[in-house]
Amino acid sequence: MTKAIRIFKTGGPEVMEYVDVEVGDPGPGEVRLRHAAVGLNFIDVYFRTGLYPQPLPGGLGQEGAGTIEAVGAGVTGFAVGDRVAYAGRGGNGAYAEERLISADVLVKLPDSISFDTAAAMMLQGMTVQYLLRQTTPLKSGDTILFHAAAGGIGLIASQWAKALGVNMIGTVSTEEKAALAKAAGCAHVINYKTENFVERVKEITGGKGVPVVYDSIGKDTFTGSLDCLSPRGMMVSFGNASGPVPPFGMSELASRGSLYLTRPSLGAYTATRDALDATAGDLFAMVQSKKLSIDINQRYALKDVAQAHADLEGRKTTGSTILIP
């Protein structure tokens, strides 16, 4: 038996239970993975609350790093003892000491990258990779707006944007978070608790607006984000931290200058082995070259995951958070 987090109903942090589970042997195409560290991400909250439905009882967690302990029939390219990591495509179940997982979603971890770093960066780092490198064709000198700039994704995006020569305007909720975002590479930081972010973006850009907005907040910032875009700009809505975006008329895009809107997901951008390896490889190269530093600002024991979720939802966390089985 091994320990894992299971939910038998949706709700608050208290619905997560630390229980004994039987993992068993890997089936065809699978491996049994022992986690050294597990990533905590806001998408886990969406599944816990039921915003994103899943069959119950079920597990939580979509990101982890560890060592392969057993290999099922037909698995090629991986062996017992390999250091591996994954994010986004393995399905829920990372909140566990051990799990079975398809070998197709794994990537080998370079020796220079620790398990803790990998668990803290795979989902967030590959998300930033596709946002900045694939979703929109950013070029040096561009100015963008990125919400939640002091979160795990935001701090990685701040560094990556700086490395690309892109001027990132980041929003935060406290002066302490503003300092973190600025130190990470944000060209401009807006405290949306004390400033109107739409007005500030217009001031910074001389009234032009920005060609791209990256919004993981959702309901509270969506309309304002549209107002920050220049004509024919791209709205990238990739999260719902404040709740889902309410229905709106397509005329809202037309009236603001023929805007574009996309709702991307990591799974779609890493759906093939080649795409997964390329996305992860770009992330690994950025970390190995020291252009990216992964800030693990919170660590919790797996059994204390309820407190971790409460802190995450209460916006008490910064940078990346990991769970230690």
UniProtKB/TrEMBL annotation:
This is Quinone oxidoreductase. Pfam families: ADH_N, ADH_zinc_N. Coiled coil: none annotated. NCBIfam families: PRK10754.1 (NF008024). PANTHER family: QUINONE OXIDOREDUCTASE PIG3-RELATED, QUINONE OXIDOREDUCTASE-RELATED. Residues 11-323 form the Enoyl reductase (ER) domain. It comes from Herbaspirillum rhizosphaerae. InterPro entries: ADH-like_C, ADH-like_N, ER, GroES-like_sf, NAD(P)-bd_dom_sf, QOR-like, Quin_OxRdtase/zeta-crystal_CS.
